């Protein structure tokens, strides 16, 4: 699914009304009707008081449409206009006028704190104050209204976006954002829904189609792409009957130091689980017996040094490499990386301490192989890029880094984002249980396993992140978030592949009486 910017959505609106020869208020009617249908299906006429707060723009206009339809269908509706400015939009006014067709009680005009209504915990609040058109900080009594509504226990439903958030810009005032329980957003989710600083205000959302021009939606390069099952299925490469293990390549995992050999085991095992034909683990000498015992399928090469990596001597040509998990940042390890980066032709995943080595020794950037995949968590990313001001700034700086160095960067987090130049891929799988030691080592192994099978680096990155998150979801459903361990995630990779093509359970039909 595509994530469009607010600018693109306005453009889509305009193209849609032109091509479909409809008025903007027809489009608003569609949008409001979709939300009304959503509510009506769930409420079935229940007389719960519904308080609709409408701004003075088109988000407010949507609120007026929703209110009119609810009143027409006999619901218990209380409408308010958050009258913060007299610059009411044309389509707000059209729908304001239409209210009189269904009720004699005109929406309550709010102009100060004194107008805040009483709301009971069982009531419903609909936030149609501001949507994608919010262009400055909320202040004065409008900010107080948001805080007043937040303090109420009533269920809060946001129209298009929670008021106080921007679609694709950083948060300005965390104390002036509606804490919506649920958001119904039009046509495409907004980027701010997926980033930690803003996404916390959007715990649940659904996308409602409003029939924007299909050609525009298909042909426009989006701000970002959301990667869910449907997208991930397209990445999968079917195996052929006469393939042999050479077809799936020979992955090399360069990992571990004294006390951190587990990182090499997790990554190597995950490369196998992702489908690599052969896996060799390169570890310091102290890791030899550990690896041969813990992972008999892997071949093991060792450094001359006992406790950390100093020189990566190979006796084969790897088809993919994952490097950095638990390797520490010793000077000799940095030299080994310089040599590896300069000499190796295989596609490469660069993780953990290898990223820290780059941050501490920027000359490594000069030899970074093109299309390498870097997998930093937030701390590692900030060490690499320097401090960032907010989630959006971080994305922009990552894009610039990716372009400058021709690399793919995976920003790990709740919604892991893969960045390649201006392209952003937002992952939808994963859960808080995966914030556990070794989870990143598994991811690096998975991506190396995909690379070794010939997946293109960008696809290996995006697909690997999806599979890793899906495996984490499968495990957490079995054992709880708390009990998820990295080795469980690795073990569940097989089920993540199977889940990729599993049919979603269909709603059961009532048995027919004969
Ligand atoms: N394609 C779609 O998604 C459709 C969306 N619709 C709805 O329209 C809104 C966007 O409407 P717009 O009028 O452009 O903006 P808002 O209603 O969000 O804001 C109104 C207006 O208010 C002014 N303003 C902005 N910030 C402030 C502030 N802090 N204080 C006071 N006033 C402010 C500014 O002038 C804004 O323009 C979208 O979210 C959907 O809900 C259509 O109904 C259908 C198509
Ligand atoms: K809203």
Description:
Homotetramer. This is Bifunctional NAD(P)H-hydrate repair enzyme. Pfam families: Carb_kinase (PF01256), YjeF_N (PF03853). In the N-terminal section; belongs to the NnrE/AIBP family. One of its GO terms (molecular function) is ADP-dependent NAD(P)H-hydrate dehydratase activity. The chain has helices spanning 6-19, 24-43, 58-72, 90-98, 140-151, 196-199, 214-219, 229-235, 261-274, 288-294, 331-343, 352-360, 378-385, 391-405, 439-452, 457-479, 486-491, 493-500; strands at 2-3, 50-54, 77-82, 108-110, 124-128, 155-159, 182-186, 205-208, 224-227, 250-254, 278-283, 299-302, 320-323, 348-350, 373-374, 408-411, 417-420, 423-427. Strand 17 (417-420) and strand 18 form a beta hairpin. It is built from 18 helices and 18 strands. With 514 residues, it is α/β, with parallel strands linked by helices. Helix 12 packs parallel to helix 13 (378-385) and helix 15 (439-452) packs across helix 16 (457-479). It is elongated, with a radius of gyration of 27 Å. The protein has two domains: 2-221, Rossmann fold (3-Layer(aba) Sandwich); 232-500, 3-Layer(aba) Sandwich (UDP-N-acetylmuramoyl-L-alanine:D-glutamate ligase), CATH 3.40.1190. The relative contact order is 0.09. Helix content is 40%, strand content 15%. An eleven-stranded mixed β-sheet has the order 1-9-18-17-16-15-14-13-10-11-12. Strands 4-3-2-5-6-7-8 form a seven-stranded parallel β-sheet. Bound molecules: ligand LP7C6HRI and potassium ion. Ligand LP7C6HRI binds at residues 9, 12-13, 27-28, 31, 55, 57-62, 84-85, 87, 89, 130-138, 159-160, 186-187, 210, 212.
């Amino acid at each position: 699914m595509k994530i469009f910017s607010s600018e693109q959505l306005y453009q889509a609106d305009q193209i849609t009304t032109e091509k479909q020869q409809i008025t903007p208020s027809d489009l608003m009617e569609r949008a409001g009707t979709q939300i009304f249908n959503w509510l009506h299906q769930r409420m079935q006429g229940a007389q719960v008081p519904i308080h609709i707060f409408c701004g003075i723009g088109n988000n407010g206009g949507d609120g007026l449409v929703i209110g009119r339809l609810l009143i027409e269908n006999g619901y218990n509706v209380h409408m308010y206009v958050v009258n913060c400015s007299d610059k009411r939009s044309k389509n707000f006014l059209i729908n304001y006028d239409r209210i009189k067709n269904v009720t004699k009680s005109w929406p309550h005009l709010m102009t100060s704190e004194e107008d805040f209504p009483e709301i009971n915990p069982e009531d419903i609040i609909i936030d149609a104050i501001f949507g994608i058109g919010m262009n400055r900080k909320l202040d004065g009594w409008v900010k107080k209204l948001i805080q007043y509504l937040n303090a109420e226990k009533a269920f809060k439903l946001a129209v298009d976006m929670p008021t106080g958030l921007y679609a694709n810009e950083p948060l300005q005032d965390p104390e002036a954002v509606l804490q919506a329980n649920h958001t119904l957003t039009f046509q495409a989710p907004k980027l701010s829904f997926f980033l930690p600083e803003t996404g916390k205000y959007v715990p649940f959302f659904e996308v409602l189609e409003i029939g924007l021009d299909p050609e525009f939606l298909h042909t426009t390069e989006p701000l970002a792409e959301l990667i869910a099952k449907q997208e991930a299925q397209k990445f999968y490469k079917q195996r052929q009957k006469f393939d042999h293990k050479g077809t799936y390549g020979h992955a090399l995992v360069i990992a571990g130091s004294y006390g951190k050999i587990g990182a090499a085991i997790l990554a190597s095992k995950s490369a196998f689980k992702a489908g690599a034909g052969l896996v060799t683990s390169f570890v310091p000498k102290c890791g030899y017996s550990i690896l041969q015992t813990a992972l008999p399928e892997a071949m093991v090469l060792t450094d001359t040094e006992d406790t950390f990596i100093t020189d990566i001597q190979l006796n084969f040509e790897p088809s993919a490499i994952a490097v950095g998990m638990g390797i520490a940042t010793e000077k000799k390890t940095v030299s080994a990386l310089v040599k590896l980066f300069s000499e190796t032709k295989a596609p490469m995943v660069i993780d953990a301490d290898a990223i820290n080595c780059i941050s501490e020794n920027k000359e490594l950037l000069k030899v970074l192989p093109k299309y390498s995949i870097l997998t930093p968590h937030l701390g590692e990313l900030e060490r690499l890029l320097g401090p960032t001001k907010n989630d959006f700034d971080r994305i922009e700086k990552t894009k610039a880094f990716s372009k400058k160095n021709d690399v793919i960067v995976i920003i790990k987090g709740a919604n892991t984002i893969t960045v390649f130049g201006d392209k952003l891929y937002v992952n939808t799988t994963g859960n808080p249980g995966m914030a556990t030691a070794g989870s990143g080592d598994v991811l690096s192994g998975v991506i190396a396993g995909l690379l070794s099978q010939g997946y293109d680096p960008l696809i290996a990155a995006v697909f690997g992140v999806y599979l890793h998150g899906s495996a984490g979801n499968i495990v957490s459903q079995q054992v709880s978030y708390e009990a998820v361990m990295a080795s469980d995630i690795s073990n569940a990779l097989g089920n993540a592949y199977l889940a990729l093509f599993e049919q979603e359970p269909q709603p059961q039909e009532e048995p027919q009486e004969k």
